[in-house]
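Worked Example 4.2. Read the sequence first, then its structure tokens.
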Amino acid sequence: MKVNGTPYRSLWWDESAGALQIIDQRWLPHDFRTQQLDTIEDYAAAIVEMRVRGAPLIGATAAYGMALAMARDPSDASLERAWDYLHDTRPTAINLRWALDRCRRALASRPEGDRVEAALRLAHEIADEDVEINRAIGTHGLELIREIAAGKPEGEPVRILTHCNAGWLATVDFGTATSPMYQAHDAGIPIHVWVDETRPRNQGALTAWELGSHGIPHTYIVDNAGGHLMQHGMVDLVITGTDRTTRRGDVCNKIGTYLKALAAKDNGVPFYVALPSPTIDWTVDDGVAEIPIEERAAVETTHVQGIGEDGGFATVRVAPEGSAGGNPAFDVTPSRLVTGLITERGICKATPEGMAALFPDMAQAAE
């Protein structure tokens, strides 16, 4: 996608520096900053501190972290240390483990002398695959938007609600939930996007920044406004992303997604999840019982960051001094509330049968 007319991915390899460059997302949407990752500690900090965020992007970043580890020391011990160190950064998004496992399997079978080049090549491959997966998700999701548009009066937009940021900033490019929106807009289909703020880190502001940069009409709303809009017929479709999806179709996404799904079910609004296949955890069935939910620092709920009246960054306490802050980062939406899953291979029902029909190779391999 483009920033001020310049094409960017959310991460890219700088051949001249021999290092990975990322967009440091802590400062968005107010300031666009990039950072070079030079050490394995830089990679871990980037993931933990959400300089990079979003399940697909975390996975791609970790793959480059493994490549750096091999460039420093291609031994078996180094490979295992890097896997452990990066795996411990965030517990919920399955793409992290998927990418690390893929790197470990591919590199463990190679002689140490071949690992440096092979690791970097594999990281590039994982990043490029993510771009293509997200483009394909958009192509399939576009058809849903096109169908809704066909039943509307000419010129009336398809009104889509999304939660958190499942845009190109959360992936290598295109995004998951936003990919159908970009493709619909580029196809000339009028759309309007309701963007949840997504407290406590307000990732919806990143979605608004993305959509605005692309010229897509949107409105930034508080998290609790979605149900009201649905009650009044102002939402045609909900599309969210996912950080982990179980084999039966339970969806783990940013905290608050479950409430949106409940409101959508109550008001007959289709609730779809944009699902890249690396985000499926075929080892888990019951998402509520089995997916570990990351508990982040309380300061994210008790304080907010933004631009002060002087134009500089400011952190402000919003909770009373002495009040404890709870901060579960994700919740699980049971499959019964999900209308369908938009994947790179097509759209399926959020059921074991629906998922296995689209991904028979993966389902069988997990048995």
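Now turn to a second chain, presented in exactly the same format:
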Amino acid sequence: MSATPGERPVPHLSEDELLAWRGLLELEARVLGVLDAELREDHDLSVAEFDTLYQLWLQPGGRCRMKDLADKLLVTRGGLTKLITRLRSRGLVARVSQPGQQAVDAQLTEAGEELLAKAMDTHFDGVRRLVTSRLSPAELRTLRTITQRLREPGTPTG
């Protein structure tokens, strides 16, 4: 089936499958692009840097093992090291070693928490404007159910 007139058919997916998948990709790219631009303009933070600060803020004491933080951010350890290095150079995050342990933690600094508090207003206002305000309460619950199901390992329905 072809998604739009003039396109070659994609035999691997039905039209609904293709358009649902394409819709997810296009929505993510559009929304993240806008959120990234707003965060950069207002706070000199990328979405990835914001998410790093936010994930630390969620943790007790604003602190998390680097390995665990990489998993939460869905990035490689190398990618996280680059993010932490940038944030550390701005005084927003500190690297903390535990005596007698190889593990290194990242910790949100006071400056990082102050910047994050301002950036959260920008970020979540954008999320509301671009996504959540455009859906009814029932649609939000449905979207929540769908995203929870897609995050879980398991067998397809149908």
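Notes for the reader: The mean pLDDT is 91. The CA atoms of residues 47 and 148 lie 22 Å apart.
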